[in-house]
C-alpha cells in the first residue's frame, strides 16, 4: 500500500523549466536540508580541455567529473593538471541524455544514457577500477521515444526504468560487472506498466523509483488527460494512489528519502509519501489505512488472463474483490514451486526473486529438499545457457535454507568456482555437509589467489573474524632471516621475547594478520569444513608454494592469538578452534614440507614454528612436574579433618 501525504510549498519559482528555470534539487549533508538550484544563481566554472557535462559530489569520495564526450575524471586530478587531454568515449552525434551515480562499498559507479538517431546506449563506469562497459538498449517492436529515466541498484544489477511516449513503463537490467567489458552487449527491456500516461503530455512526463516494487509517475492520466502525480505497484501492476495537479507541472520530478519534489504551477512543491511492504492485499486496497483529504483513492485492476483493463469506484471495487475471492476459492492456484520453476525459464532475475520469496514463505513439505535441488538445477542451467544471467541472490537464499547438499546440486560449486564467486563458495562451505576434498581444496586455492581488489567488492560473512585481528593494508611477505630490526638481531629479539614470557619467534607474527579480514573469513570457512586426511593431502600438494606459505603464516598467527588468553580460544562468533588450526598446520606440512623448506621466504616461518613447538614441549614438561605437587597438596587437603581448629603448615615444593 502507498499513500501521498499533505503537500506544502518549499519556494516560489517565477521562471519555467529549462536552462533559465529550475535546474535541480539535491540533498544536503543534513537530512532536513535540500539544495535547490535555479537560473537566478550562477556557478563559476573554469574551463578545462573539454566541455564538462556534470560534476558529481558524493559523501566520502572526491567529486567526479563527467565530460560531454563521456570521459570520467576525479576533480583532484583535473585541478592538478587542467590541460590534460580528455579522450572521447562516445561516438559522434551521440548525446548524453541522463546520468546517475551510485555508491557500492564506498566506491562510486556512474551510469549515463546516450542517444543517437533514436537508439539508446547505457554506459557503466566503475570509477575506482576505471572499467567502462557499454550496452545497447533493445527497444523491441515498440519504437516509442523515452521521455524519462530512473534507476536503482543492488551490488550486481542496475534496474533502469524508462517512461516512453506511448505512456508505458519499461525495465532493463544492466550488470555492473559484465563478463566481457570490451564488447558492446545488448540489454532487452521488459514491460512493467502499460498505458498509464496519456501520449499528449504537454510538458512531458517523469518517472521515479521509490523502492523495489513502487514507482512514482508524473504526467496526464489517460482517462481525464489531467496532470497528476501517482504511485504504482509494479509487482502487481496496480495504481496505489494519485493526486491531481490543476495548476500544471513542468514534467520534472525528484525524490530523496520519502519526499517527492516537483513544480506545481510557479511553486516548488514537496509531497511526503509512504510505501508499505508490497503484498497482494495492500495492492488491491484491502489493508486498512487513513486517506489524506485531496488524495484520490483509486485502484486500478489488471486482469492477468486478458489484456482488458478497467477502472472502478470503491463500491465496484469491493464487488470485484468479493467475486475474485470466490473464484480463487473454486480454482486453487498452482503450487509456488511450479510457478517458480516456470518463471526461471523465461522471466527476469528480479521477477524470479519475487517468486522465490513466495516459495520460501510456504510451509516446508517432506520432499522440499528435492524441490529446492530442482530449483537450483534450473537456475544453473539457464546461467550456463545465458552468460549474463547469474542469480547470485537467489542461489544464496536457497543455500541458507540448509536443505541443500553437494550431492544434491554438484554443479553449484563448479559454477561458483568458474565465476570466482567467493560469497557463494563461503556459504556452501558453511552449509553443505558432504563437500568432497577436491572441491574444498579448489576453494582454498581460489581464496589464497584472488586479488585484494576483487575481495573488497565481495560480500563476505565476517562473523568468524574479530575486529582485533584485522590484517595490515597490504599482505606482505616475511623479511629474510638475519635482518636487523630496530637495532637488534632476530636472535636478540627472541631472547627479549622469552624474557617477557612470550615464546621465541613471536615478535612480529602476532602483531597483525598476514591476510586481509575478508580473506581471513574465507580461510576460516575452509578450516571449519569436514575432510578425510587420506583424501585431502594429495590435493594440498597442488597448491603453489607461495600460497602454502601464506596460509601457514595465517595459521601461525591464529595459533599465537589462541595463546594470548587462558581459554586458548579466538574471539568472534564462530572462530576456528585450536585443534582445527593445529590439524591444518600438520596437513600443510605433511603435504608440502619438501617444497616449503626450499623457499627462502618460508625459512624464518619454519624456524619460528620449530622454536614455538620446542617451547611448548618445555612448558608441558614443567606443568607435568607441577601436577605431581598438586596431587600431593590434594592428599594433604583430604587429611585436614584430622587436624585441630588451628594449625600452621609448611609445604616444600622441589
UniProtKB/TrEMBL annotation:
Main location per the UniProt record: nucleus
Region (Disordered) residue spans: 462-513
InterPro entries linked to this entry: NOL11, Nol11_C, NOL11_N
Subcellular location: Nucleus, Nucleolus
Gene encoding the protein: NOL11
Nucleolar protein 11 N-terminal domain span: 47-274
Keyword Calcium carried by entry: no
Pfam families: Nol11_C, NOL11_N
Protein name: Nucleolar protein 11 isoform X2
Domain called Nucleolar protein 11 C-terminal: residue spans: 338-654
Keywords assigned by UniProt, alphabetized: Activator, Nucleus, rRNA processing, Transcription, Transcription regulation
